């Protein structure tokens, strides 16, 4: 089928908007590529330092073997990243089999948002993306690599690594996933226990048992939050091998895919005949495909911040209007928790990304004519990996129909006609709201405001029984310049309880919500932020606020709203403790949420 006219129009608009910066970016990457393999320009002393610890250093110094740089986010604080402990050895062995060498170029930090949710450490979370980009840049600055292998999965880690990959756009970039943990306690049962705990119906022992039964093994958390949305993006944007995203860790297929990723990285360097630099993959069509995938699967709203930052590193400018217009024509084709009862393992078993990509291509909702790490054309990503009788890796045709229509449906018969992400504009600024898991009866909320400066104050008011009628909960001074724009996911059980009590409630904030948040309408990423004299700083208790996800508007209806002075932000609230002191310079220069809330791009 021909490309949907809205997909074509939005892509053309992005191309035109970005032309000057994209042209300059491509000129820089072409100039870097023209110099040739970087090792050729290092002195003998430079090279001796680079290879001193390598067993095959003489071969590397005197031949034109590809040398692959590994940038790893390994730690065993993140279950998703714990399997990466073994990857350097696997990669070096696979590189040797492919006539290449590999080195760990450097490590990047990888914090666990699950540990820091509701804690002061969450205020470092978003900025860790920029630190990851910087650290990966340092790793690759040795200029001894012909391609880069990026080991990262979770929230800010993949976006930070993509920013680095785009910045070193003359190098091929292959992203190597680790896969989700096996299914544990169903996510809806875990959420029910959380709500019971919030209401005081069960004790902490019951809550702890439920959490441990849900997060129980190495691998990515199985709900469809930011980490798994990242993995979908890397596949649909052509940076993973086809079908690689959701294969479980420590399985023969997973290890075969890792070895194949190494072989592919070695094959697409400038030393061979199939050179595919990252700059060729990361164009405006790839980013539009990523947004389409986000809408079709009901992915994390965090990517509405990360994708613009990632794109800017490649000279491409995305805007909220692009997300909104694409959402209007891309149907919701997947129901994965929190938008349904299934987890990502069930999604993968039902046909997963190979089927989804194939169906979106048939519907004209994806660009097929893109470059990927496995070659030109996104149709390659409709195949899925298998092990043959001898244990060799092969790709076979993916399923032609969904294997479970409660989890995956075709674009012609979707769960919803739109992707469920709406841009909001009004006298409270610009923001977004995700409604794919929100009942239609809650798509419009008009109620008096209760204004809070942090989520702890909201929870205290809840415990004191202060919420007895319809309420718009305003949590301000949560933007990047205030306190680093933490996720406010800890409010989800509290607000869910109020909604279950029959109250019409909504959250309005210049902060973020977790990719795991769901049924409560949340107008997030409001920009300009309150700490930058944005309109949220003028909201008062009792103001009637209307959040209208149907019309795409967000307004304070108080007649004197525009004439009020803003409430000043006290920066001391988030200035110290748990490392926040070190990020004052980041807070001072962070960009607006509408442009990615970034420091380095």
UniProtKB/TrEMBL annotation:
<dbReference type="GO" id="GO:0019521">
    <property type="term" value="P:D-gluconate metabolic process"/>
</dbReference>
<keyword id="KW-0119">Carbohydrate metabolism</keyword>
<protein>
    <recommendedName>
        <fullName>Phosphogluconate dehydratase</fullName>
        <ecNumber>4.2.1.12</ecNumber>
    </recommendedName>
</protein>
<dbReference type="InterPro" id="IPR004786">
    <property type="entry name" value="6-phosphgluc_deHydtase"/>
</dbReference>
<comment type="function">
    <text>Catalyzes the dehydration of 6-phospho-D-gluconate to 2-dehydro-3-deoxy-6-phospho-D-gluconate.</text>
</comment>
<comment type="pathway">
    <text>Carbohydrate metabolism; Entner-Doudoroff pathway.</text>
</comment>
<dbReference type="InterPro" id="IPR042096">
    <property type="entry name" value="Dihydro-acid_dehy_C"/>
</dbReference>
<dbReference type="InterPro" id="IPR056740">
    <property type="entry name" value="ILV_EDD_C"/>
</dbReference>
<feature type="binding site">
    <location>
        <position position="221"/>
    </location>
    <ligand>
        <name>[4Fe-4S] cluster</name>
    </ligand>
</feature>
<keyword id="KW-0479">Metal-binding</keyword>
<feature type="domain" description="Dihydroxy-acid/6-phosphogluconate dehydratase N-terminal">
    <location>
        <begin position="65"/>
        <end position="379"/>
    </location>
</feature>
<keyword id="KW-0311">Gluconate utilization</keyword>
<dbReference type="GO" id="GO:0046872">
    <property type="term" value="F:metal ion binding"/>
</dbReference>
<dbReference type="InterPro" id="IPR000581">
    <property type="entry name" value="ILV_EDD_N"/>
</dbReference>
<dbReference type="Pfam" id="PF24877">
    <property type="entry name" value="ILV_EDD_C"/>
</dbReference>
<feature type="binding site">
    <location>
        <position position="154"/>
    </location>
    <ligand>
        <name>[4Fe-4S] cluster</name>
    </ligand>
</feature>
<comment type="similarity">
    <text>Belongs to the IlvD/Edd family.</text>
</comment>
<keyword id="KW-0408">Iron</keyword>
<feature type="domain" description="Dihydroxy-acid/6-phosphogluconate dehydratase C-terminal">
    <location>
        <begin position="407"/>
        <end position="597"/>
    </location>
</feature>
<dbReference type="GO" id="GO:0005829">
    <property type="term" value="C:cytosol"/>
</dbReference>
<dbReference type="GO" id="GO:0009255">
    <property type="term" value="P:Entner-Doudoroff pathway through 6-phosphogluconate"/>
</dbReference>
<dbReference type="InterPro" id="IPR020558">
    <property type="entry name" value="DiOHA_6PGluconate_deHydtase_CS"/>
</dbReference>
<dbReference type="Pfam" id="PF00920">
    <property type="entry name" value="ILVD_EDD_N"/>
</dbReference>
<keyword id="KW-0411">Iron-sulfur</keyword>
<dbReference type="GO" id="GO:0004456">
    <property type="term" value="F:phosphogluconate dehydratase activity"/>
</dbReference>
<keyword id="KW-0456">Lyase</keyword>
<dbReference type="GO" id="GO:0051539">
    <property type="term" value="F:4 iron, 4 sulfur cluster binding"/>
</dbReference>
<dbReference type="InterPro" id="IPR037237">
    <property type="entry name" value="IlvD/EDD_N"/>
</dbReference>
<keyword id="KW-0004">4Fe-4S</keyword>
